[in-house]
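RECORD TYPE: inverse folding
INPUT: structure tokens
STRUCTURE:
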């Protein structure tokens, strides 16, 4: 077994060195990020490595673009996986985002991953592994390998722990059938201590260009990270992109933008307009959060919202009307929109607007 390991390790080192000499001009086969056409990446050494059982330290490299700006982190991994008393090497190339999160992997066609009974991974198996690795909340992060099988039988083969038994139901659907140990090993390599190390490294070299690259990506975590590291001037300069993110991203990202909207654009109220104009295209939770800031919003906001009454929930409409009640006079445009809404038979909460107009 040691001879086999040595031969495969030499092959691994050959492949690693070959990769370092080449340009990466295409995305990994399994990838969670957006790959920009024309991207060409070169590898650079870092001070980081992954400690792999029976193999030792395996380097983590930075993949940088033509401007030497890091885009990804990567590592070629050769690690033993053992089950039912048999050990094999798993050869795979992992990728991490600049924040240390799982980004994808490449397989080696000449060294396919295998399951029990020497069966090779099929296309569906690789896709399932990809989905598993993208799930950072998987139960694998909370359990030892022996806790993921119903009747574990631990053995030692060539100094390496081996495990056999039926996979428990809670993880069975998320792992490749017949490859629990491979899936478990891969998940912990991807989501181990290396994640925080890589994120800390990115923070130490962070510059404006890296921050903007993240803002203009489609990755939620990148967008959040970028906004946390932008000043008011950046917010104003890249307002158009922030509006795009606001319209297309997740409720979590929107909530961050909403909470900073009046503060970042306090002295530039016109820049707030496109965000409030998107009130009727965002989710209900985001709309409710926006209504909490309506008292701090520019004077034009009540006019904008008066044209979007139909998408408001009962509480959102109540908050809007309470805000209007603090006004000395009701602008004719707002009054007309409220009147039209209050007389609509299709609007469930039309009575609220009617009561408000009667009392105002």
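DESIGNED SEQUENCE:
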């Amino acid at each position: 077994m040691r001879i086999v390991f040595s031969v495969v390790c030499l092959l691994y080192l050959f492949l690693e060195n070959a990769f370092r000499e080449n340009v990466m001009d295409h995305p990994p086969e399994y990838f969670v990020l957006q790959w920009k056409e024309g991207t060409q990446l070169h590898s650079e050494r870092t001070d980081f490595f992954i400690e792999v059982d029976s193999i030792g330290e395996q380097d983590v490299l930075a993949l940088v673009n033509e401007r030497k700006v890091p885009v990804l982190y990567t590592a070629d991994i050769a690690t033993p996986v053992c089950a039912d008393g048999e050990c094999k090497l798993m050869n795979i190339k992992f990728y991490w985002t600049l924040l240390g999160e799982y980004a994808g992997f490449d397989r080696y066609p000449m060294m396919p991953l295998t399951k029990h009974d020497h069966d090779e991974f099929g296309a569906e198996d690789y896709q399932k592994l990809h989905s598993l690795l993208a799930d950072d909340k998987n139960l694998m992060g909370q359990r030892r390998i022996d806790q993921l099988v119903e009747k574990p039988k631990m053995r030692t083969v060539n100094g390496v722990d081996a495990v056999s038994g039926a996979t428990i139901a809670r993880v069975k659907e998320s792992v490749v059938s017949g490859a629990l140990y491979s899936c478990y090993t891969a998940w912990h390599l991807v989501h181990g201590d290396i994640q925080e190390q890589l994120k800390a490294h990115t923070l130490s070299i962070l510059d404006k260009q890296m921050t903007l690259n993240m803002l203009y990506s489609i990755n939620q975590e990148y967008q959040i990270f970028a906004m946390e590291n932008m000043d008011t001037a950046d917010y104003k300069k890249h307002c158009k992109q922030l509006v795009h993110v606001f319209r297309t991203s997740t409720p979590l990202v929107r909530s961050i933008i909403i909470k900073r909207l009046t503060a970042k654009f306090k002295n530039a109220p016109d820049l707030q307009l496109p965000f409030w104009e998107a009130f009727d295209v965002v989710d209900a939770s985001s709309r409710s959060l926006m209504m909490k800031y309506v008292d701090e919003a520019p004077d034009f906001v009540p006019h904008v919202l008066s044209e979007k009454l139909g998408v408001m929930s009962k509480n959102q409409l109540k908050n809007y009307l309470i805000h209007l009640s603090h006004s000395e006079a009701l602008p004719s445009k707002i009054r007309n929109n409220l009147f039209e809404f209050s007389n609509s038979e299709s609007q469930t909460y039309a009575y609220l607007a009617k009561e408000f107009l009667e009392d105002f």
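NOTES: Residues 2-195 form one domain.
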